[in-house]
Amino acid sequence: MSDTNAGTGHALADARERDAADPLGEYREHFSVPDGERYMDGNSLGLASDTALATLERVVDEWRELAIRGWEAADPDWFHYGEHLGDLLAPLVGARESEVVVANSTTVNIHTLIGTFLDTLPGTPAGPDPSADPPAVLVNDLDFPTDHYAIRAQFRQRGIDPDEALVAVESRDGRTIEEADIEAALRERDDVGIVFMPSVLYRSGQLLDIDRITAAAHEHGALAGFDCAHSVGAVDHALGDAGADDEGADFAVWCSYKYLNAGPGATAGLYVHERHHGTTPALAGWWGNDKSTQFEMRHTYEGADTAGAWQIGTVPMLSSAPIEGAAELVREAGIERVREKSLALTDYLINLVDDRLGDDFSVGTPREHARRGGHVAIEHPEGYRVSEALRDRGVVVDFRPPNVVRVCPAPLYTRYEDVWRVIETIEEIVESDVHLEYDPRGGGVT
Questions:
Q1: Where do the segments described as Disordered lie (predicted)?
Q2: Residue 13 CB: number of other CB atoms within 10 A?
Q3: CATH number of the domain within which 353 lies
Q4: Same domain, 284 and 343
Q5: Is 17 contained in some domain?
Q6: With CB atoms 3.0 to 4.6 Å apart as the test, which of 68, 152, 260, 412 could cross-link to 162 if both were Cys?
Q7: pLDDT digits over 89-119, tens only?
Q8: Inter-residue contact 435 to 382 (CB < 8 Å)
Q9: What is d(CA 337, CA 315) in angstroms, rounded to the nearest whole number?
């Protein structure tokens, strides 16, 4: 697909022609799309599919019929379920099956992985040289806040001042992060031991170059980790062989309720490159123990020699089961085709913003395909009021400060006509000034 955006025109017929030719159009039938709504919030919570609900219902039936026997007698058995789901997700992130597991929540996974790898570095209490200067972690100032909260907590637990050790690359424009600035920060700080970046910036939708960042981190002698919450299921990753050195990223985390469509609070996922298998997790728990000896109930932890070692507590079956059915849809559609449609939908959306909305609107998302994730940041001085007016008119979007209306045409269930209708609704709102009837932003979920 070319990076050059084709003109979209203003005709609804054009959108319908695109839908008629869409090779993934049939997948919409699997999803429960709210009646009378244009759902554009799949980057926050994906919709329920019949396949996700079917695997959830199967596990509920297993619970009812097998009770505790489900740990061994269910198909697939519950005991290895986190690993089973990891096998399903591994192709979507470009990793080996042994490198991926479904476990914990995204924030917990950040805690355990950052903590684990800090403990391998000089300057930490468990590191090879505790007397050395403490290592730094390189992040950026546009990160999702939980990433910084978790990293700071891990520093504090090791007696390291997070104000000194957490180093943030600054954005040049308040929207994006330049990979060149990450590389420059590495040249300026020889104490960086871990580079931890998002794959996609949650506000602007910028897709960062994982290969380039991984190569820069490894050349510096640092580890490369990524928060892929806003990309897994929409972007075709190659975590296992990223980087010019072909060594692959060291670790990554993600959630399952956005583009993977596994439901609110669905169990998260993580990736750890096989070269790190055998490392003791910072937050060790019994579910990460080697499965062959787990029920010998030894008091000495014996971690699995896979990414499964970073599981902590018992797999939450009812929060994990929908991932199975949801992932099968993405695998069947093909992550490359999902990515292709995502880019086509966001191309179309960006062009409609350019063509039909006034000068008060702008697109804060990079236009180049290689720098764009799955959603579009539409900026407006009254973005919050516009988002509230949209919701009251059946267009489900979300708002992120200071001025961003995030619009996500999720590729498995969004039509081009839906995108066209969203822009039509925004036009009607601003032309009538109806958004000015809403109060400025208050609290609550946006």
A1: 1-25
A2: 11
A3: 3.90.1150.10
A4: no
A5: yes
A6: 152
A7: 999 999 999 999 999 999 999 999 999 999 9
A8: yes
A9: 31
The answer on 81 and 20 residing in a single domain is: no
Extract the runs of DSSP E, i.e. beta strands, from 214-315.
223-227, 251-254, 269-272
Would you list the DSSP string of 359-376? TT-EE-S--SGGGB-S-E
State the DSSP code for 246. Answer: S
Asked which of 295, 310, 331 is the last residue of a domain, the reply is 331
| Domain count within the chain | 2
For CA atoms 287, 288, 291, 292, the dihedral sign is negative
Would you call 267 helix, strand, or coil by DSSP? coil
C-beta of residue 285 within 8 angstroms of C-beta of residue 311 = yes
Q: Are residues 283 and 234 in the same domain?
A: yes
Placement of tokens 């424009």 in the chain: 173
DSSP per residue, 101-128: EE-S-HHHHHHHHHHHHHTTSTTSTTSS
Which residue range is the domain that position 283 belongs to? 56-331
DSSP string spanning 388-433?
A: HHHHHTTEE-EEETTTEEEEB--TTT--HHHHHHHHHHHHHHHHHT
CB 395 within 8 A of CB 425: yes
Rounded percentage of the chain residues whose pLDDT exceeds 70: 96
The tokens describing 374, both together, are 């799955």
* 155, burial (CB in 10 Å: exposed 0-12, middle 13-18, buried 19+): buried
Choose one of 331, 363, 397: the last residue of a domain: 331
How does DSSP classify residue 303?
B
Same domain assignment for residues 123 and 252: yes
In a domain, 128, yes or no: yes
Residues labelled catalytic: 144, 227, 257-258, 406
Q: 289 with 301: CB under 8 angstroms?
A: yes
Band of pLDDT at residue 247, cut at 50, 70 and 90: confident
Model pLDDT for residues 196-239, shown as the tens digit of each residue: 999 999 999 999 999 999 999 999 999 999 999 999 999 999 99
Say if 84 falls within a structural domain: yes
CATH code of the domain containing 316: 3.40.640.10
Order of strands, edge to edge, in the sheet holding 269-272? 100-102, 269-272, 251-254, 223-227, 192-198, 136-140, 166-169
269 and 186: one domain?
A: yes
Parallel, antiparallel, or unpaired for β 398-400 and 166-169?
A: unpaired
Residues 118 and 25 placed together within one structural domain of the fold: no
How far apart are alpha carbons 414 and 426 in whole angstroms? 18
Distance in angstroms (rounded) separating the CA atoms of residues 292 and 302? 10
